[in-house]
Design brief:
seven-stranded parallel sheet; Aspartate-semialdehyde dehydrogenase; Dihydrodipicolinate Reductase, domain 2; globular; binds NADP nicotinamide-adenine-dinucleotide phosphate; 13 strands; aspartate-semialdehyde dehydrogenase activity; lysine biosynthesis; 3 domains; 12 helices; 371 residues; six-stranded mixed sheet; Rossmann fold
Length: 371
Amino acid sequence: MKKLVGFVGWRGMVGSVLLDSLQKNNDFVGFHSVFFTTSQFYGIPPQVTNNTSERLEDAYNIECLITLDIIISCQGEKYTTQIYSKLRTIGWKGYWIDASSCLRMHQDSIIVLDPVNLKSIQLGIEKGIKTFVGGNCTVSLMLMALGGLFKSHLIDWISVSTYQSVSGSGSRGMLDLIKQIEYVYKNISPHLPLSKSILSIEKIFTESLNDMYLSKDNLKTPLLGNLIPWIDILMNNGQTKEEWKGSAETNKILNSKKNILIDGTCVRVPVLRCHSQSFTVKLNRDISVREFELLISSHNPWVKVIDNNFDSTVDQLNPLRVSGTLDIPVGRIKKLNIGKKYFSAFSVGDQLLWGAAEPLRRILNILIKSL
Ligand SMILES: NC(=O)c1ccc[n+]([C@@H]2O[C@H](COP(=O)([O-])OP(=O)(O)OC[C@H]3O[C@@H](n4cnc5c(N)ncnc54)[C@H](OP(=O)(O)O)[C@@H]3O)[C@@H](O)[C@H]2O)c1
């Protein structure tokens, strides 16, 4: 008999990419589905194969939730914190699949990224683990990009600077950036074609954004024409939580015997979709650039090594090129002058796909096949 899967948070950034991907891959044929909401109580569920209800169900209705075999939540941390333990406390034995971070470091959960940790996932299912959580977006994208180096136990440490798109902060963050573009355009359009001096144009642009700062409702400062070197809350060692996740989650996913050190600075940039990362990698032995490239490109089918030249880099190593695809281009690979074991690499990945929805879609299918 087909299993019953509940979808919570399917309307948000991650949820809508997940839904789209499940439809494109014809996955809905494999199970029955029910759609939930936390706000649109009289809304209509999306038209998908094997949907069982005519209306959206209340995502806080525990009696309805306990009838499900699998729940996928892309609703966020607040919802998971409120509902997950209630369900477990009353003895719900179903599978919980989550996009948010709050269950990732729990002892009885597995962070899923099957091209990297399929064995741990399979072992976990056999042992009766019931909670599977998608990893932090930059962590998953880094592990996809540099998986071959991790698998060969070559990494001593990684220092990383991230360039994270605004959709990483959810649908509100993305809408906010679009509103900023609209606002600046309104201010600049009376002067088009650009008739004023270049400095006057710059002044209109900057002043528009600074005015808008006063009417902000999401980010603390406008992101357009700007960047914010801070993501998530402050930890007690000066890191942000986003930076802390780099090492903590990577080592959990890899089940590392020796802690691999990863640290850096996470930066929000005015890009709509896709996160980019600039890595400095210290290896534990001297290998050639060619070996480095072969190791990463043979790890999984999505990594594409980009030649270290201007044309290939500009053409293929950027967020617009990668948005909406599962490609993980890795370029700017070179040995650093610092020493023979030091490499730089730059990677881009769609944080809504490999960084969020795709590992969830894949664990759902793995579970459906295993039940
Ligand atoms: N965004 C990413 O790149 C990313 C990557 C990895 C992990 N995550 C994690 O995944 C979880 C969900 O993130 P998200 O980025 O998908 O959050 P989101 O876009 O803010 O969506 C979360 C919920 O907000 C509600 N919502 C309110 N206004 C909305 C609007 N205008 N459009 C769509 N939905 C709206 C929806 O719930 P109702 O339909 O019930 O109202 C939706 O399910 C978070 O825990 C996040 O940390 C996100």
